[in-house]
Amino acid sequence: MKLASKLFITILGTALFTSCQKGLVYDEVPADVYEDVSLSTNLCKVETREIFTHKVYQVNYKQWVDNMLLVSNIGLDYRSNTEYINNTGSDVTILGEVIKPGEKIMVQNKLTTEDEASAPDGKLYVINVFATARATYKTPNKGHVFVESEFQGEDIKFSTPGDNEGQYQEASIPVDPTKLSVALLLNNSKACEVERVGDAPELGKPGDFSKPQRYMVVNITRRPEGEPARRLYEVRVQLLK
After folding, report:
1. Going along 59-203, which residue ranges are E strands?
2. Which three-class secondary structure state does DSSP give residue 5?
3. Under a CB-based contact definition with an 8 Å cutoff, are residues 205 and 178 in contact?
4. 49, 161, 169, 188: which has the highest count of C-beta atoms within 10 A?
């Protein structure tokens, strides 16, 4: 008897839920929203993270910070048109153009397309993103300083001296392209989600961008009919020295 009652309640609940669903009226989503799988003008963000273990000193408390995590936005300069001077001593190729030593060129992140039969619209959207080959880390304030003597044998360049000799507020470190934190900047982050393709690293966390990585942007808003809008992107990061 109890089993029959439970079965009746389940059937009744399902019927009522289905009936309620049929009566729902959804607001129409504009086509420019449910078809949008584009990126903002800044395209993406590239950062590095570094944990400094026993290398930052708290001046006011006269003690070491065991571990300090700092972030450097190494791609910020190239979101807008920025002058790059080739001081490497050898040729540098940027978007197919060869830059001789000593030459200057204006550089900016750029979105290009290539034919790709397997892509949703037959196109691969390439995010050509540039970043500095050295990351500059800054301490939170004057009360925290990098101590030069704690960086023995490391390729570090210090700036913004503190009150005492050998203490600085800024440190520049070579960037490891296998530990970059990259994020796609969607034009409408509420309407879309990003899916990794293959073994691409998770966005927003340190990952290997020494090689191109692909991501699929999918529009998840309600549409009248058909498949959701999708676009295949490939991130190509070039570190400039």
Report:
1. 63-72, 82-85, 92-94, 97-99, 104-107, 110-115, 123-132, 134-138, 144-147, 157-161, 167-174, 180-186, 192-196
2. helix
3. no
4. 169
48 and 179 in contact (C-beta within 8 Å)? yes
CA distance 15 to 180: 52
3-state helix, strand, coil split of the chain in percent (to 5) is 15, 45, 40
C-alpha distances (whole Å) from 112 to each of 42, 208, 239 are 14, 22, 18
130 contacts 75 by C-beta, under 8 angstroms: yes
Question: For residue 17, is it within any domain?
Answer: no
Q: How confident is the model over 151-201, as pLDDT tens digits?
A: 988 899 999 999 999 999 999 999 999 999 999 999 999 999 999 999 999
Domain containing 101 — which CATH number?
2.60.40.4120
Nearest-Å Rg of the Cα atoms of the chain is 26
Count: domains in the chain: 1
Task: Judge whether 212 lies within some domain.
Answer: yes
What is the domain range of residue 185? 31-239
